[in-house]
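ok so for the tutorial part 2 we go from a plain amino acid sequence to predicted structure tokens. step 1 is just haveing the sequence, like this:
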Amino acid sequence: MIADALDPDTAIRSLHLGPTPYEGGPPSDTGWASGYNTYISWSSPTAPNAPLESAQVAFDQIYVPNGADPALAEKRLRLRQSILDHTIDQIDTITPRLGADDANKLDEYLTAVREVESSLQNMPPQLGCGGEAMAPAADLSFVDHTKAMLDVVVLALRCDATRIVTYSLDYGFGNKDFAFLGLGNYKHHNLSHSGTAPEIINAHRGIVRWHMDQFAYFLAAMDAVGEGRSTLLDNSLVYMGSDTADGWVHAHDDLTAMLAGGAAGAVNPGRLIDASGASYDSVLLAMAHAMDANVASFSGASTPFDGL
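step 2 — the prediction. this is what the tokens look like for a chain of 308 residues:
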């Protein structure tokens, strides 16, 4: 909705990134269609914005080094398109086995993929933006891939390749194994249904702390990009949140959210706000207005949250 309202004059209308792929596809829950656990951005009520899961592909979409051979840009463009074509080829093999409802859902997904493909075909490559950037390596671990994705977001904003980005650190009902934290061999979703013993709570805190460390890393990288007398972070609005407040019962009341940046003076940061009773939709609507996207309403909210 923000992209529709602002219609930014950038090479990429909006950039959508996702987690490292799960073997066998993203996790799902029997209570919801899997799309609602996979996508956090939608171009319409029924069509999701398919996220890029590869930091390498995302990097190549937004950046070509200064002085690069134009043939390199064309090669990268063909590569990106071939990856999408490979996705379509895989889907074609399962289409004949789908029922009507699943076929409709698949068609919505393919529409989103084709929109990405169309944007690539019409997008001139970014020929540098005041500095060299190193492409992410192949076969990155989950930890390194996460940081690479965050670096790509900063690069995209620094290069003004896009001004609107979403990045999901994991899928809804994601079950990443956080054994690398040294707090036990715990998978995230399983852990949230494993009781309240001290070691369980300690592992939970370790995972939350790790996510906050990634957020801090990202904000520091944005703040290091100078823009005149301010920084990229000063001129941006960054939201981080969760799809669940209480993982034990999958509750959505009292969702905690964090906002960072100054939105070029549109918000007043550095505060802890008790927003009890406020709707989640009203906060998102207030964020849109802070970005000068004066949409009339979002979901169930027509009045923006008054407090940012």
